[in-house]
Design goal:
The chain is of the alpha+beta class. It is built from two helices and four strands.
Length: about 100
C-alpha cells in the first residue's frame, strides 16, 4: 500500500514539474513590442463563446497564428490569438492556453 501511495506522489510531482516547465516569461519591453505589433498590424480578435483562461483548450476551428520571430525565443514555440484585447499564447500541439498577455 505504501508503495502505491509513494508512486502516486512521485507521479504528481513529475506532473507538477512539467506544468512549471511551460511557464512563459515575457519581459516588459517584449510586452510592449507585442502590443505595438498587434495595434500596428491591426490583428483581428477572435470570437469564441467560452471565456479563455490559462489551461483551457481552444476549439479546433480557432485559427492559431504563428508568433513573429521579432517577439523573441521565449514565445517562439507557441502560436497566438488575439482575444478580448489580450494576446493569448497557445501550445500548438495541444491547443492549450499557456499564457495570456494583459
Amino acid at each position: 500500500m505504501r508503495k502505491i501511495v509513494l508512486a502516486g506522489i512521485v507521479a504528481a510531482m513529475i506532473g507538477g514539474t512539467a506544468a512549471v516547465a511551460q511557464t512563459v516569461v515575457i519581459a516588459p519591453d517584449q510586452r510592449a513590442q507585442i502590443r505595438e505589433y498587434v495595434v500596428k498590424e491591426k490583428i483581428r480578435p477572435i470570437t469564441v463563446k467560452e471565456r479563455i483562461a490559462v489551461g483551457a483548450v481552444l476549439p479546433g476551428d480557432v485559427e492559431l497564428a504563428t508568433v513573429p520571430a521579432a517577439w523573441g525565443p521565449t514565445v517562439a514555440p507557441y502560436r497566438y490569438v488575439y482575444w478580448d484585447d489580450h494576446v493569448v499564447f497557445v501550445d500548438p500541439a495541444s491547443r492549450k492556453v499557456v499564457h495570456i498577455l494583459d
